[in-house]
Specification:
Blueprint (H helix, E strand, L loop, with lengths): L2 E3 L9 H15 L6 H11 L2 E10 L5 E9 L4 E7 L9 E2 L8 H11 L2 E10 L5 E9 L3 E8 L5 E3 L9 E2 L3 H9 L5 E9 L5 E8 L5 E7 L5 E6 L2
Antiparallel strand pairs: 1-2, 2-3, 3-4, 4-5, 6-7, 7-8, 8-9, 8-10, 11-12, 12-13, 13-14
Length: 233
């Protein structure tokens, strides 16, 4: 398995690692993977704490994965895997807790019951200090479900079928992008499905124009209405 220790760019690289480091730099510049600083900022916003170590691996299908070791505010050591291209948290877990059920079979069970796409996964603690996976899933018919699963035994604790989080129809992303193309031509560099404080779903879409500027759009995921337009950071 190819592994390059990043160590937050504070340590010298071996010649072999330097070659991979150059490949990673080129991939970042080409927009194929996200910069490490962006990944770390997103991880620490969800899991406040101190970064202990960062490595980048290749998964079995060739994707680059950031493996991040973090000491959270409660003193727990977490190992968080993040898809380097999409920024999706793949497998956050307690590094010192071998009793947690692997995430992959849990996701397969959920997708068998609710065919669709996993949007987000977070390892959290509930009010009883029980380890839980909070899983956001977009079904094949455009509904968004927020599921809660016991991280130790895989039991479904909340099927996301009640309240504002479940059953919300979402306009298919290809339809949204087609509608934007006429007035916002360019290269789509990033798309995320988010929820505002009122629980309304929106797509956050970054489009790089021919002049090199990147425009950030927020589009209502149900109506397709543009809610906000501005220059991306």
């Amino acid at each position: 398995m190819l592994r390059t220790a990043l160590f937050l760019a504070l340590y010298a690289l071996t010649p072999a690692q330097a070659g991979e480091h150059d490949a990673i730099r080129r991939a970042v510049e080409a927009g194929e993977i996200r910069p490490l600083a962006e990944i770390l900022a997103a991880v620490q916003s969800r899991y406040p704490g101190r970064i202990l170590d960062v490595e980048i691996d290749r998964s079995g299908d060739g994707r680059r994965i950031y493996d991040i070791e973090l000491l959270d505010e409660d003193g727990r050591k977490l190992e968080i895997s993040v898809d380097a291209a999409s920024g999706l948290v793949i497998e956050p877990r307690a590094a010192d807790d071998d009793a947690l059920m692997p995430l992959a079979p849990i996701l397969r069970t959920l997708l068998a019951a609710h065919p669709g796409k996993i949007l987000d996964v977070e390892l959290e603690r509930d009010r009883d200090d029980r380890a839980i996976y909070e899983i956001e899933l977009l079904t094949a018919d455009g509904r968004t479900l927020e599921l809660v699963v016991d991280a130790r035994d895989g039991r479904l604790l909340d099927d996301g079928s009640h309240g504002p989080a479940g059953g919300e129809p979402v306009r298919p992303l290809p339809d949204v992008l087609d509608a934007l193309a006429a007035h916002h031509p360019g290269t789509i560099v990033e798309v995320e499905l988010e929820r505002d404080r009122q629980g309304r779903r929106y797509y956050e879409i970054d489009i790089r124009g021919a002049d090199g500027r990147t425009v950030e759009l927020r589009v209502d995921a149900v109506t397709g209405e543009i809610l906000h337009e501005g220059e991306a950071d």
